[in-house]
Design brief:
Length: 910
């Protein structure tokens, strides 16, 4: 860090050194952005206020790129964003520059990046999909992007519009115009918001479009106008005030703005609008009732904050701009000046609200510039930090002053209807009845979760009945969650679910009418954080309790779908299908664990079957891409828990790739067969490990291949045989006890498994074998076991899973047998095994099942591993064990582990 500051100071004016040091000290984000800045960039950045430069959307800040490489495009956009943010943070926190200029610059930079990303997207999809002759596409900026008042941590809320007809031309594939613009939109979103090593450009939130997530991502102009004019709601009118074309065909964008104006701005004030505004005000009151200025206060949504100022301005525009077109402007500060000129609001009120708005925006940006977080809440040390960041003295008193002014103006200009009516208190009104026994932090977080639910219900994406139904759901759920130690996370997950449901009221209808589904949801949200996260992301899982069958049938269907993948023209779509299949299978396994519907070995088999099908599909894809025959003798040899059908939800793929060919030097085209095999191995690992949607999302462990991670990726059949016969150590033969050919042509798989059987069936000296196994176990305990007095590592500690697995592997190598699963090797010991082993085997197999049950329960319910089990019986992990496992206390577990390790030593020393 000191070297970085020294470099910066060398290339900045001495008069600015104090501000440079201050900014680097208080803003972690700025320091991060400066890491790769060179001499020229420092010189251009560190200038006094009258010479400082702010970014915009011009070519000097967002230069065009002609690259047709996705990675290069992603990198270019992120470099431009980082460069712009350096100047913005220096302007705001280094120089205390004007906030109107800063917000406008942020929005213009975002618009420029969006426009460049659109050109990139058109170029990137052109080889496959070509273009639409005579078609046009435009990005409409909504919210702060449209108003040219974006903040450093904002999402961008776009609306994608298109016009055109027919099908695409000049690409490998001709598709109809709606599908073409869907692909264009998806590529544009990916360029803007896919996370790379350089972060993202801007988060893109598409939920403000008509129909939310249930609608097409890109909308035809006429259909969009018809929707708003026929079905639009008051909140959409307020949202569209700020609509502005920001990228693409500006003429198309202006046609939308002109066409939508009659919907936004009514010539006559109607009572429907007044009623809706009053209802929106009451909801804001409920959301903002979170106390005064203190750590955690939300400067955007809190009482007297940014949102109330914007609501005042937008409300007055809705009420008066129908008859006065000069009021139809997007930026808040320009709009309030126009409202003053029209006599709608007085000069003193305007001055106060503008001062408050600029003050809160500076505070908001300072909070976000600290660590680059998307937050609006005051940190614990807000007074000291914000004083240093903004140069504003007595900052807490300033906050109280501005908040009070805004609250008064809010009451003055947004007159509610029926404010004197006392409404029944419910969970969505901010009531905290029954929360008195909770800790303060839990109370606050529950209040925030309820506020989020209310906010999404208030946006109009759901019908009014959904609000009533959600209130009834909470009436049943909240008493149970308040008595559950996981109730807070359950409510927060439910808030995420309401967000994800967006415009699809059918899911709330389901919960409101099907008691079984509701009871299941209430329970699963409090029981499993893993499941809660997935259900919130994909509400279709709410149908799971209604399915006639669970488990085996579902897993077989997923495997069949993966086995049927043979059309590889669209590689990304194929990988997305594989990723979805694996993810769906993992979630089905988790649901079965939560419902106690399947034991650990059944789950392990299902996960292994899915991994097999995914691996086979990936290898077929690789063969297709390399123009190799389907029977190319490349075999994926599954090892570890994958090979033995004992996988957990997050098990690695332990694999060895074997090439079954007499002469790897034989040429296939321009490369030898062996070179092709190495390329298949590299590409298969890439596809298997890439996170969804364009990969299977597995971790991959290649350490079990001959010579470990340093060895060649793919070994020949002869090389594999010779290594295992002459060079492999005992631990490598232990690993072979689980080996199974998971993918490849049948004849090639048989050849590999014949060698595995040959190696395993060798005669061994039992004393030497036992000595090797104990020595390897001792090394593992020394290096991997828990060294903490307060934690248990159920995998690596003495008496843990590895003890039992090593005993099973010893038994296979010493006594023979045919099984691969740990419990099969121990339950079905050959008659040649000593009596002592026969007696201990079944008990060890039962203990192994108990351990794996604990592992699955911890992973599903808490998304934690067995590597750090607390010895404190009151810990959350043990509450989970009491619900889902046989071993329910740390003392019971320690007693069991002691017995296992004693048996380990006794059996191997016999």
């Amino acid at each position: 860090m000191s070297d970085q500051i020294d470099f910066i100071l060398q290339h900045s004016p001495a008069s600015l050194h104090a501000d440079v040091r201050r900014l680097c000290a208080i803003s972690q984000q700025f320091s991060t952005l400066m890491r790769n800045a060179d001499e020229a960039e420092c010189s251009a950045l560190f200038r006094p206020l009258d010479e400082a430069r702010l970014p915009d959307g011009s070519e000097s800040w967002v230069p065009g790129s002609e690259s047709s490489d996705l990675v290069s495009c992603l990198s270019h956009l992120r470099y431009c964003k980082h460069r712009g943010h350096r100047h913005l943070i220096w302007w705001e926190m280094g120089l205390n520059g004007d906030m109107d200029d800063s917000c406008r610059a942020i929005a213009d930079l975002a618009s420029g990046l969006m426009d460049e990303a659109l050109r990139m997207a058109e170029r990137l999809i052109a080889p496959r999909y070509g273009r639409i002759e005579g078609g046009s596409f435009c990005v409409i900026g909504l919210g702060k992007l449209g108003g040219r008042e974006l903040n450093l941590g904002s999402d961008v809320d776009p609306l994608f519009l298109w016009q055109g007809e027919g099908s695409s031309v000049d690409g490998r594939q001709s598709i109809p115009a709606p599908e073409y613009y869907m692909h264009l939109s998806r590529m544009l979103i990916r360029l803007m918001s896919e996370r790379t090593a350089d972060g993202i450009v801007w988060p893109v939130d598409m939920r403000l479009r008509p129909g939310g997530d249930g609608a097409a991502i890109a909308l035809h102009l006429e259909a969009t106008l018809s929707h708003y004019l026929e079905y639009g709601q008051t909140w959409e009118r307020a949202m569209l005030i700020k609509a502005r074309p920001v990228a693409g065909d500006m003429a198309l964008g202006q046609a939308f703005i002109d066409g939508i104006s009659p919907f936004i701005f009514r010539r006559y004030l109607d009572y429907t609008t007044v009623s809706a505004l009053a209802d929106m005000k009451r909801r804001i009151d409920g959301q903002a009732g979170l106390g005064g200025i203190a750590p955690g206060f939300d400067v955007k949504r809190g009482r007297g904050g940014i949102r109330e100022i914007e609501f005042i301005i937008q409300s007055l525009q809705l009420l008066h701009a129908g008859r006065d077109e000069k009021l139809r402007v997007q930026p808040s500060m320009i709009a309030i000046d126009r409202l003053m000129q029209a006599g709608v609001i007085g000069e003193e009120d305007v001055a106060d609200l503008k001062a408050a708005y600029r003050f809160w925006r500076r505070i908001e940006h300072a909070i976000q510039s600290r660590r680059g977080e998307q937050t609006h809440k005051l940190p614990e040390d807000y007074a000291d930090y914000l004083t240093a960041a903004t140069g504003i003295d007595h900052i807490e008193q300033q906050m109280v002053h501005h908040a009070a002014i805004v609250e008064d103006a809010f009451r003055k200009f947004v007159k509610p209807v029926g404010d004197d009516v006392v409404e029944e208190i419910d969970w969505l009104s901010g009531s905290q009845q029954g929360m008195e026994k909770l800790a303060e932090e839990e109370r606050e977080r529950m209040g925030l979760a309820l506020e989020r639910i209310d906010r999404w219900l208030s946006r109009g994406l759901l019908p009014e009945r959904s609000r009533v139904q959600t209130g009834r759901i909470l009436q049943q759920a909240m008493p149970k969650w308040l008595d559950d130690e996981n109730g807070l996370s359950a409510l927060e997950a439910f808030a995420d679910l309401i967000h994800a449901i967006s415009g699809r009221a059918t899911w709330i209808d389901l919960l409101a009418t099907h008691q079984g589904a509701l009871d299941w949801l209430i329970g699963v949200l409090s029981a499993s954080r893993y499941l809660a996260d997935h259900i919130a992301r994909d509400p279709s899982w709410l149908e799971w309790p209604l399915m006639a069958e669970h488990g085996e049938v579902d897993i077989r269907a997923i495997c069949a779908e993966l086995d049927a993948l043979n059309d590889f023209d669209d590689v990304e779509q194929t990988l997305a299908d594989i990723g979805r299949g694996v993810d769906k299978g993992r979630l089905l396994c988790a649901l079965a664990v939560d419902a106690h519907a399947s034991d650990a070995m059944t789950i392990g088999g299902w996960m292994a079957d899915i991994a097999d099908a995914a691996t086979a599909a990936v290898i077929r894809l690789c063969l297709f891409q390399m123009d190799l025959p389907r029977d190319f003798p490349f075999v994926a040899l599954a090892m570890g828990k994958h090979g033995s059908h004992e996988m957990g939800l997050v098990s690695d793929l332990d694999m060895v790739f074997v090439f079954v060919h007499d002469d790897p030097r034989e040429m296939f085209g321009k490369r030898s067969a062996g070179e092709h095999a190495q390329r298949i191995g590299r590409r298969a690992i890439q596809y298997l490990t890439a996170p969804p949607p364009f990969g299977a999302g597995f971790e991959f462990d290649a350490r079990l291949r001959p010579s470990g991670s340093s060895g060649v990726l793919v070994t020949s059949l002869i090389g594999f045989h010779d290594y295992q016969l002459r060079e492999a150590q005992t631990w490598e033969h232990q690993a072979l006890c689980r080996a199974r050919a998971a993918a490849g042509p049948d004849a090639a798989k048989r050849a590999v498994e014949d060698i595995v059987t040959e190696i395993l069936d060798q005669q061994r000296d039992h004393h030497t074998l036992a000595k090797d196994v104990m020595e390897m176990r001792r090394k593992m305990i020394d290096h991997l076991a828990s060294k903490s007095e307060s934690l248990i590592n159920l995998k690596h500690d003495a008496g843990g899973l590895v003890d039992i697995e090593f005993l099973a592997q010893y038994a296979r190598l010493a006594f023979g047998g045919n099984g691969r699963r740990t419990i099969d090797l121990l339950n079905d010991l050959p008659e040649s095994a000593p009596e002592m082993w026969q007696e201990a085997g079944r008990w060890l197999a039962g203990t192994y099942l108990d351990y794996r049950q604990m592992e699955n329960a911890l992973r599903v319910e808490l998304w934690r591993s067995i590597g750090k089990l607390p010895k404190d019986a009151a810990a959350t992990e043990w509450e989970t064990m009491r619900r889902h496992a046989v071993i329910t206390t740390p003392d019971t577990l320690i007693e069991r582990m002691n017995r296992v390790h004693a048996l380990f030593k006794q059996l191997l020393n016999s």
